[in-house]
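Changelog note: in this version the structure field was regenerated for every chain. One regenerated record is shown below for reference.
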Amino acid sequence: MLARNLISDDERAFFEQFIQAVRHPNGRNPSDHRLVPDGVFWIARTGAPWRDLPAEFGKWSSVYRQFRRWTLAELWEDILDALNHARIARYKLQMADSTVIRVHHHAAGAKGGLLTRGSGRSRGGFPTRIHLRINGVGLPMRTGITPGQDSDYTGYDLVMADNLPQPAVLVADRGYESDKIREDIESHNALPMIPMRKNRKVRKAADMTIHTLRNMVERCFNKLKNSRRLATRHDKTADSFLGFIDLACISLWLRHLST
């Protein structure tokens, strides 16, 4: 048996309710529907090429096509939203941050150019920036990607969706320091905990006691990067890479709920 640490029966039942909701009415179920999510999670965890998927999961091309169908149907985002709307974790305190991921040369060649695929140019190669919003226990709420050279605040709108539970306090670093972001946070009756830039004529002191909690988002990134498909980007398309990011986020939620 090549595979290990696959999703449990309870987790399969959890995914099945969402899978059935997005399945095309004329679509045909795989002979063993349980193996498809297993195969997708195996790829996410190992970072292996799709063609190296063990035969025990079925034909690699069938698992890949199903992953693409689910990704384009926004299945992973729907699951992540449902977990957040369940309000089973503290959400009054939230945090936002980003990290840069190196893009492997195998991810080159897709149509649309670098910018449309969430890749950019830098002296170190072709990076992608992952933007993340987490709740008060360090679990992901929303993700987004932009080219690696983009600043933090360019991804602010991607992760601060109005359809998610709104924070009472949003903690972020100086990369999010702008009047526009502060005004948006305050318009939702929330308190922005963002240190002011040193060149500001008028500076407001951030509550550093709360701001020191920002390491939770760094720890969340560290856990997400245990998924090798995320730690280095191999996917040509932005939606596939974002799908694997959301899969890693869902895994963190399921691990948290099982403890």
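Spot check on this record: The CA atoms of residues 35 and 57 lie 5 Å apart. The radius of gyration is 19 Å.
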